[in-house]
Amino acid sequence: MELLKTGGIRPTLPRLAVAAKFFGNFNHPSAEDVWALVKAAYPGVSRATVYNTLELFAQKGLARRRALKGGRAVYDPVTERHHHLVDQATGRIYDIPWAAVRLPGNIALPDFEVEDYHLVILGRKKRGK
After folding, report:
1. For the chain, how long is the longest CA-to-CA vector?
2. Engineered SS bond to 4: which of 11, 28, 76, 83, CB 3.0-4.6 Å?
3. pTM above 0.90, yes or no
4. Nearest-CA neighbor of 116 among 72, 83, 70?
């Protein structure tokens, strides 16, 4: 409840239900994944409420929306800058610390103002690891 209030979000019961299943879930769930979790515990919460609530969390800076799984949007409760590694064998997404990858301090693209960026690394675990 305090996290929502801090983000300027009125803590309604449906929003609290979504928050209970989303925050602390570091598996980079899609809105559909979160809805399945919410629906199992709170059957009265609609799919639209879950989708809208996740978007609200992202707009208020409490989550980040990323296209990581084949372009499918996922939500990340970790809002500090970091990169991602997608395991091509399992689909699991790992957080990579920002400092672990060297990127240019700024990216100059003609005709664009770059607002944000992060690196998505595709890979597979080495055999025997």
Report:
1. 49
2. 11
3. no
4. 83
